[in-house]
């Protein structure tokens, strides 16, 4: 499972950590989780300090260094989960015809608007708490999708 956002420093590494922890609690060591960005602006950097702080508050360590999506990410059997509609379009352009591409918020039982996990990067710390809340709310349905 690969989570994709813009720079791989906020949304996708948060989803990566939340889902990896949930899979661990469920005894699902058979599912490999990764994250990447549509751009390489932050390649090699740790996630945003505010994302790491909110993750730590929730008992999660966000330690995955940022990287850009590459062609090898579209291997058979990989579910690619885009954090917003722009990422979904970008991945669809990178891998035309790739069938296992979904939007993260499609798994949100409380969604009443766009299928985007909002980017907290340009806001305050409360945006990171909101982002984690959305991610955590989506995880049960996402895990049900993979069986």
Apparent shape? globular
CATH architecture designation: 3-Layer(aba) Sandwich
Q: Could you tell me how far the N terminus lies from the C terminus, measured between alpha carbons in angstroms?
A: 13 Å
Instruction: Output the helix-strand order.
Output: EHEHEHEH
Classified by CATH, the class is Alpha Beta
Give the SSE map.
Elements lengths: L1 E4 L5 H15 L8 E4 L11 H9 L22 E3 L2 H10 L6 E3 L21 H22 L1
Parallel strand pairs: 1-2, 1-3, 3-4
Structure report:
With 147 residues, the protein is of the alpha/beta class. It has one domain (2-146): Rossmann fold. Helix content is 38%, strand content 10%. The protein contains 4 helices and 4 strands. It has helices at 11-25, 49-57, 85-94, 125-146, and strands spanning 2-5, 34-37, 80-82, 101-103. The chain has a 4-stranded parallel β-sheet with strand order 2-1-3-4. Helix 1 (11-25) links the parallel strand 1 and strand 2 (34-37). The radius of gyration is 14 Å and the shape is globular. It starts with a strand and ends with a helix.
Structure characteristics:
single chain, Rossmann fold, 147 residues, alpha/beta
């Amino acid at each position: 499972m690969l989570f994709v956002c813009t720079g791989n420093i906020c949304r996708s590494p948060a989803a990566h950590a939340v889902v990896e922890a949930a899979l661990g609690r469920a005894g699902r060591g058979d599912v490999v989780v990764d994250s990447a960005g549509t751009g390489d602006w932050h390649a090699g950097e740790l996630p945003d300090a505010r994302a790491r702080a909110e993750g730590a508050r929730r008992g999660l360590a966000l330690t995955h260094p940022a990287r850009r999506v590459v062609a090898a990410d579209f291997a058979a059997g990989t579910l690619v989960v885009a954090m917003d509609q722009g990422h979904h379009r970008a991945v669809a352009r990178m891998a035309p015809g790739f069938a296992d591409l979904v939007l993260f918020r499609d798994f949100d039982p409380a969604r009443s608007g766009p299928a985007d996990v909002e980017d907290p990067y340009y806001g305050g710390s409360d945006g990171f708490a909101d982002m984690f809340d959305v991610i955590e709310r989506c995880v049960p349905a996402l895990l049900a999708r993979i069986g």
